[in-house]
Write a structure and sequence with these properties.
This protein is 65% helix and 0% strand. The longest helix is centred in the first third of the chain and has 17 residues, at 4-20. The protein is built from ten helices and no strands. The chain has one domain (4-151). It is mostly helical. It has helices at residues 4-20, 25-37, 41-51, 58-64, 68-75, 80-83, 89-103, 119-125, 130-137, 143-151. The N and C termini lie far apart (41 Å). The model is unreliable at 1-6 and 143-152 (pLDDT under 50). It is globular and about 45 Å long. Helix 2 (25-37) packs across helix 3 and helix 5 packs parallel to helix 9 (130-137).
Length: 152
Amino acid sequence: MVHFFQVHALRMKQLLVFSVERDWCSVVQNLLDMPFENAEADSFFSKLSYVMQDKMSLLHHAVRRKCRPMVELLLAYVPSSLTKGTDSGLENFQRIMQFKLQWGNLIRPDMAGPAGLTPLHIAASMQGAEDVVDALTSDPCQVCLQLHLKLV
């Protein structure tokens, strides 16, 4: 028997994939923001990651379309609620970094997809995808390094 939350996550996944495949960056941003507005991000993203197991990630879809803006959005995703407000720049930065440390493993350029291929593998094998490779390998905040240091 399929539970309501699994259906909800499945539909959300389908909406996200549909939007990524049409290069609708604003729609993807809004769809990803929804769980954070309702304070149900923990349960939602665990269900969404369960539904997307053994499938291509959103980043894989964006890379296959050679859509650099979507790749950059997914890699640098931060809920809109964290970037809005009257807090100081340092407080915003701290909240964003806390988000990246907690949720940074959801969308990574080294996530294995079908046949063990990462988005970087796919982009490197495609002709005319140099800007996508550049987007996948640039990490201005060095979030991957910080995550690695935290785990060590």
